Amino acid sequence: MTTVKAPARERTQATGLTGAIKSRLQQLLAFASLVVIYAFFSIVSPFFFSYGNFIAILFSTVVIGTLAIGTTFVIISAGIDLSIGTGMALCAVMAGVFMVNMHLPLGLGVPLAILFGGLMGLVNGINVAILRIPPFIATLAMMLVAEGLALVLSHSTPIYFSDVAGYTDLSTGNLIPNVPNAVLILLVVAIIAGVLLTKSVLGRYTYSIGSNEEATALSGIDVRKWKIAIYAFAGLFTGLAGVMISARLGSAQPATGMGYELQAIAAVVIGGTSLSGGKGSIIGTLIGALIISVLNNGLQIMSIPQEWQNVILGGVILVAVYTDRIRKKEA
């Protein structure tokens, strides 16, 4: 008896459909985890479930979420970026240099600080794509460089934005009553990033490179050029995070930033993005960032010591990475 195989196009469509279903299920699982965690803290603490605390959670998600959105592109392309934490601190310092030291207007200083993040991402991309340095090593080196430059340029002291009119309003102002502007900015950039990831050439090549870099190169795509573009684009979010955190604090703190890269990467992985590349979404990343913020907020309200908060967060990251490995085996 002869077995008739389905046409290649039908098999490809079926595989794509299965992958899309799995992606949706992963997002639903992450969202269900968020709901369960939120419900748990609402039950155990009478202070957790309130509108004010809900807004506080969203506000605390802004920096991690912004970093995580940029990192999503890098990780989907099968890369990694360890420099986003200290890079964020350096961009905050550069915002201070531009607007406080050089007295540039707000409308020029903020874009320059964001573009400086893109410049760091560009350097990372060149090191990874052109010099063939492993992403872990290339971005680890940039992490150390950014940490040192932030201290050097600020003379190891905070730079205050008290004389820069309107700067803190970027984060703590309220275009919508009782909703910080920083939350609105996160929402807008998440929508833009989501559209670019799913509808643009940049997003399509990001997935393609992460799924199979060799096949992508053989199809005639300049992989090196697009890797540089991916890291540079992700760097813009590092710059934006630097602006957001310094506007929130009213100052650029050069020693701030260490550890943010781990939380951002954790948010990406918890949200369903595969560390091996080729899979991920902005929606999932935002859910992952919210899970981390809810955990941090709930544990602080319960007066859990910081060291135990780190232990719990580490356990969550381990579970997320192990789940990613299981998904990879099943695929």
Automatic annotation (TrEMBL):
Subcellular location: Cell membrane
Keyword Membrane: yes
PANTHER family in the record: ABC TRANSPORTER PERMEASE PROTEIN YPHD-RELATED-RELATED, RIBOSE IMPORT PERMEASE PROTEIN RBSC
Residue spans crossing the bilayer: 28-48, 54-75, 82-102, 108-130, 137-161, 181-202, 228-249, 282-302
Keywords noted in UniProt: Cell membrane, Membrane, Transmembrane, Transmembrane helix
Chief location of this protein within or outside the cell: membrane
InterPro entries in UniProt: ABC_transp_permease
UniProt membrane topology term: Multi-pass membrane protein
Protein name: ABC transporter permease
Highest taxon above the source species: Bacteria
